[in-house]
């Protein structure tokens, strides 16, 4: 059995893991994020880059391409219409405050290619943000229709930590790694120490991301965006997060329940005039009609044009995880937000009770329609279904709420280690196969070290830091040799 955890080790073990990464990647790589080993890394879409920018993951202080100091005073609001990505922003450039819009693109040249230079809607853009491109260092200047130069900021994607699941084709084959032998030879104390350190390191990074978002948007909005992403399941985290960013919680809380639901489902692209007229189920028809009657009144303000509409992933999604049902769960959370914050505040005062109270809150959420429906078109089920099932609850607790509790309450580390394991997904299976192998002894070792959520997170962190950053099929990776120094 693994050695017992030291309840006062957080965050000391995380710092040890950070030093270990620097030891494994010395000299040239020590000054970079280990992700730099994969120089093809980048966002899957412009929308992902915009969402991560708005969440504050790039920070708020930059140097422009011409050497000016740039500070984001106010990140602004997602634009629901055509024009720049974020409106009503405030930026300080060399100490001079400018109010206007911010445009974010994958390439600097997109400004001209997309016709922004001739579009009057982009005249008040005060900042043009794009990805650094070492492969094409050619300089492009950003100018408006009236020939005003716009300050440019180039950001480096490689300096970001991993953010949620990536498409599976980004992952290498799960062949047995050279580290399997030294990992198998480690005694329980050392292996537990390594896993504890990697888990703390990963938890600390999640806490830092939440804190950054809270500093920009406030704690309510940071939690709302993180909860929405967690409810999005593997493939719909991004559209759920963007939806929560486009419709801030502060704009939803004052609304009547149906108004709130109509805005969320409408902005998600799920409410059309004929959606209730063609429904065979009376309860569905009644619900959709109520949503439409509330949505059409604000549709012109909140409906996104075609190029800004959210792209929901439906292939291979189980009915219980359909994005429409996940939206129904988010609606229930918004409708009971004060109860949620009260429960969370109590957990901050007494983290030992966190598991029991938070589990009870989420498991007791109800919705008259979504308790018995999979989608906006499905027939009602015979039995009532939990809005938030066990796996989603584990994800919310482990990836959102405990990282939030760890802002100042280091004693929450011990109850965090009591979280049971979540369902093993494809990425975790590959990590286990790569690090431990597949024979009987390896399976037993893997089982001992994936029994709890924190252990699974540790293996994912090790896999991400080393296996995914190695392009030599394990041959040149320094991790196996450095394990003896742990």
Question: Could you give a quick summary of the protein structure above?
Answer:
The chain is α/β, with parallel strands linked by helices.
Shape: globular
Main beta sheet strand tally, sense and closure: 7 strands, mixed
Low-confidence stretches: 27-41, 162-173
Instruction: Report the span from N to C terminus.
Output: 19 Å
Let me know the number of strands. Answer: 7
Radius of gyration: 24 Å
Mean model confidence by pLDDT = 85
Question: Could you state the order of secondary-structure elements as H and E?
Answer: HHEEEEEHEEHHHHHHHHHHHHHHHHHH
Indicate the percent of residues in helices: 40-55%
Give a verbal description of the structure.
This protein starts with 11 loop residues before the first helix and ends with a helix. Residues 27-41 and 162-173 have low confidence and may be disordered. It is built from 21 helices and seven strands. It has helices spanning 12-24, 46-54, 110-113, 180-185, 188-217, 219-231, 237-246, 249-252, 257-267, 274-277, 282-295, 299-302, 323-335, 337-349, 354-363, 390-405, 413-416, 426-436, 440-448, 453-467, 479-482, and strands at 61-63, 69-74, 77-78, 86-93, 96-105, 125-131, 151-155. The chain is an alpha/beta fold. The protein is globular. Among the domains are: 46-159, no CATH class; 216-347 and 354-398, no CATH class.
